[in-house]
Write a structure and sequence with these properties.
The structure holds two protein chains of two kinds.
Chain A (H helix, E strand, L loop, with lengths): L6 H5 L1 E12 L3 H8 L5 H6 L3 E12 L3 E6 L5 H8 L7 E6 L2 E2 L5 H10 L1 E4 L11 H11 L4 H14 L15 H13 L5 E5 L7 H18 L2 E6 L2 H7 L2 E6 L2 E6 L1 H6 L4 H7 L23 E7 L4 H9 L4 E5 L5 E5 L1 H9 L10
Parallel strand pairs in A: 3-8, 3-9, 6-7, 7-8, 11-12
Antiparallel strand pairs in A: 1-2, 1-4, 4-5, 9-10, 12-13
Helix pairs in contact in A: 6-7, 6-8, 7-8, 13-14
Chain B lengths: L1 H5 L1 H19 L17 H16 L2 E6 L4 E6 H25 L3 H6 L2 H6 L10 H15 L2 H16 L3 H31 L1 H16 L6 H8 L3 H26 L2 H9 L4 H12 L1 H22 L7 H10 L3 H26 L11 H4 L1 H24 L18 H11 L1
Antiparallel strand pairs in B: 1-2
Classes of the chains: A alpha/beta, B mainly alpha.
The complex binds adenosine-5'-triphosphate (ATP) and magnesium ion.
């Protein structure tokens, strides 16, 4: 969420998609060639085709979490499938670490999948005949690791996702949440660089979901992977995302930081989509602070200008005086008062939009 | 017109009546009239097929083959040599398993010659004492599942031995132990091929339909023509008969594997072979196991039918018993067949469902405990059969092999019933 993508990382995207199209149907390729890149959903529909992904171009950088959002059927899973080459894209180019994914031979693809990619599936995709442990060890065994070694590693992963004591259960003996943890453990067993997660926490109850999100962030703090994360839940997206992509009918409507998505929606659809989002969870103190006041009016408390409002709200509210806002070097760049936070939290939305 | 529209059914009916009477009045009943009797267009077909098969087997594509017994070259037809070679292979496998169980010289002959066996008296493979098979079955049942299966296997084998059906039962078993795995493997192979390729599927499905609706007996003639008579012919007929359900169930099972599982397999970087062997087939296991169950049942169902073309064993004896109206014996033989089927089915199921314990920190003895048990068992039973030789002297050694019809039997009881009726 708050990891800053450094400039040098920007130069080398881990995942790069340019004009990726995925159209389901018999003569998808022909239709797409005729349409010249401009897709009219109706024509395609009449021809018996369904548009899954429509002209997706974006880059994901090392260590970044890109959250893909959108309504059901908007093509999120399809996008993920294209990037992992589980389905063949109809048109466009995808590069993984600079390598042309679509030009890879099946051998190269297998290598990439074995070493670079991990995926958590929406419906778990566990092997029903294998126990928890065997499921987690499976990618390692496929790679040709010895039984001893892979079981040892699998056991570590079991502990990591908190399934100790259930190693020998079969997937059918686990709850949805537990199965998803097995899926997560399995996808992490080979230590992939790129991690695809397709609604990994949807099957979990809110409490466990929160726990898993924390766990996810902790893991990401340690592992620093490049992540594509699909979710329905805006709060989840806000907690996790470095950037958010919002999809509608296969089109990526907007791809930007959470604050920009909320404050500067690129399309009407995105505006509607983000209407209900609590802004204090998205915005930084910077966007609501006032010019620095006199030193005598300031209390002892200082907050970073990059802090999310929601995170520091309580502290600011308990401070009767103005609170100093500082930058990374500790210089005071502005101030904020509890009254401002109160308006922010309980006043009408829109009152501060212009401030950003 | 109005009538036609209002009552289309009546109109049809009247039309048909008119056609019927028109034909009835115009067609002259004479053997030469094609409208009366279709000429025997196909009369030549059976003869043609006969000719074709004969030509194929005896004349087509002559090749020179070396006959080791006569030590000279002979001319023979290619197809015949191929089917012969195949028959020999199948027969060798059956004889091999059979001689492990019952003893004999044919396997040794296969590697040497009849002369060698004639000259060397020691060159006979001894029969396994039935107690070893009993103990082995119990051990296997215990190792694969537990006490219940051990008990079942033990009781079944004991029944067979005690009721004096040991030899035919082992003959049948040797036949099934070859036919069933071959059918399963063939079924798996064709099932996966059909799963992978649409063309293969469209070709296979109608063939399966034909194969599964054909009466069992109709397999016997072509098999006899091409492979002759004997255990191998029985096994081949059985394989042809038992494979189709396996193919079907394999295909069904593979098709039912959820796409997510396939995708998960792909994402872990499975090669095609790994995908098939480690993901698809195990996931489709439930249906495939029903397939193996079917195969085993079919094999034993064919035991009797295959005896028509020379398969030895329980089926043959059952046939004889039925011909002689020996109901008691037929009943006991029937039970033997059922028991073998049930035990094999349960054992194969248990084997497929066996779980491994990865963290059992076993030493050598623990890891190989069943092997060690078996060796001990073998030694004890062999010693026991030598002791039996001393006890029973020149008579039948009941600790080694119980000869056919020397066990206890309930036959007099049933026979009394039949006789008093008759
Ligand atoms: N194999 C397929 N064949 C035809 N159409 C498909 C196929 N897979 C997906 N689609 C279509 O593509 C569109 C996008 O599907 P996708 O699964 O990507 O949606 P999603 O955004 O993941 O939805 P959800 O949130 O429900 O998972 C849908 O309209 C769907 O009907
Ligand atoms: Mg989806």
């Amino acid at each position: 969420m708050s990891s800053q993508i450094s400039v040098e990382n920007r130069a080398k995207p881990v995942i790069k998609c340019s004009s990726v199209y995925k159209v389901f149907g018999e003569n998808a390729k022909k239709l797409l060639a005729q349409s010249n890149g401009r897709i009219d959903a109706k024509i395609f529909k009449d021809a018996g085709c369904v548009v899954g992904v429509n002209n997706a171009s974006f880059e994901v950088y090392e260590g970044e979490i890109l959250v893909v959002m959108g309504l059901s059927g908007s093509g999120k899973s399809t996008l993920l499938r294209c990037i992992s080459r589980l389905t063949d894209t109809t048109a466009g180019d995808i590069f993984i670490d600079g390598q042309d994914l679509l030009a890879m031979t099946s051998k190269q693809l297998i290598e990439v999948r074995r070493n670079k990619m991990g995926m958590v599936f929406q419906n778990f995709g566990l092997l029903p005949h294998k126990t928890v442990l065997e499921n987690i060890a499976f990618p390692l065994q496929v790679k040709g690791k010895s039984t001893d070694e892979s079981m040892k590693r699998a056991l570590e992963m079991v502990e990591l996702v908190g399934l100790d004591g259930r190693e020998n259960y079969f997937p059918r003996q686990l709850s949805g949440g537990q199965q998803q943890r097995v899926g997560i453990a399995r996808s992490l067993a080979v230590e992939p660089d790129i991690w695809f997660l397709d609604e990994p926490f949807s099957a979990l109850d809110p409490l466990i979901r929160k726990e898993m999100q924390d766990e996810f962030l902790r893991l990401q703090g340690v592992l620093n992977k490049t992540i594509l994360f699909v979710t329905h839940d805006f709060n989840e997206a806000l907690r996790l995302a470095d950037r958010i992509a919002i999809m509608k009918d296969g089109v990526i409507e907007q791809l930007d930081t959470p604050a920009n998505i909320v404050l500067r929606p690129a399309t009407e659809y995105v505006r509607k989509f983000t209407e209900e989002v609590p802004r204090e969870k998205v915005l930084k103190i910077e966007s609501v602070m006032e010019p620095a006041v006199d030193q005598s009016l300031l209390g002892p408390l200082q907050v970073s200008k990059d802090a999310i409002i929601y995170m520091v709200a309580e502290a600011v509210l308990t401070e009767p005086k103005h609170v100093a806002v500082v930058n990374d070097n500790g210089d005071i760049v502005g101030s904020i008062h509890a009254s401002k936070i109160i308006t922010m939290l309980f006043g009408q939305t829109g009152a501060y939009d212009d401030k950003a | 017109m109005d009538f036609l529209k209002r009552y289309p059914k009546y109109a049809q009916f009247i039309l048909l009546l008119i056609i019927f009477f028109a034909l009835y009045l115009t067609v002259i009943p004479s053997e030469t009239n094609i409208l009366w009797r279709l000429p025997a267009l196909f009369a030549g077909v059976p003869g043609g097929i006969n000719w074709f098969a004969e030509h194929l087997m005896y004349d087509w594509f002559p090749v020179e083959v070396y006959d080791p017994e006569l030590e000279e070259y002979e001319t023979s037809a290619l197809v015949r040599e191929l089917t012969r070679g195949f028959s020999r292979g199948v027969l060798f496998c059956i004889e091999f398993v059979r001689e492990i169980l019952l003893g004999g010289v044919k396997t040794i002959v296969a590697f040497t010659s009849w002369d060698f066996v004639g000259e060397n008296e020691w060159a006979v493979w001894p029969a396994l004492p039935w107690t070893v098979v009993l103990g082995g079955a119990i051990l296997l049942g215990y190792a694969l599942r537990g006490k219940g299966l051990a008990l079942l296997a033990g009781l079944a084998i004991a029944y067979i031995a005690i009721f004096g059906q040991w030899e035919p039962a082992m003959e049948t078993l040797s036949f099934v132990l070859i036919a069933a795995p071959v059918s399963c493997l063939l079924g798996l192979f064709f099932g996966t091929v059909a799963y992978k390729s649409r063309t293969a599927e469209t070709i296979l499905l109608p063939l399966l339909n034909v194969a599964q609706t054909m009466p069992h007996f109709s397999y016997l003639i072509p098999v006899m023509v091409f492979f002759g008579v004997g255990d191998h012919a029985g096994a081949i007929a059985t394989i042809i008969f038992a494979t189709p359900p396996m193919i079907r169930l394999t295909l069904l099972g593979l098709k039912r594997v959820s796409p997510e599982v396939v995708e998960a397999g792909a994402m872990t970087g499975c090669t095609n072979a790994q995908m098939m062997l480690k993901v698809l087939i195990p996931t489709a296991r439930r249906d495939i196991l029903i397939g193996t169950n079917q195969v085993i049942m079919q094999c034993l169902a064919m035991a009797v039918i295959a005896s028509f073309i020379g398969a030895k064993g329980l089926g043959f004896n059952l046939l004889l018993a039925l011909n002689q109206l020996r109901i008691g014996q037929a009943l006991e033989l029937g039970i033997c067949i059922v028991l073998i089927a049930v035990v094999l089915d349960k054992l194969s199921l248990a084997w497929a469902n066996k779980q491994t314990d990865y963290f059992a920190d076993d030493n050598f003895v623990q890891r190989h405990k069943y092997g060690i048990f078996f060796v001990i068992l073998l030694t004890i039973c062999v010693i026991l059969s030598f002791i039996g030789k001393l006890i029973f002297g020149g008579g039948i050694n009941f600790f080694h092999l119980i000869p056919h019809n020397q066990g206890i039997t309930t036959e007099p009881f049933w026979q009394a019933g039949v006789d008093s009726d008759g």
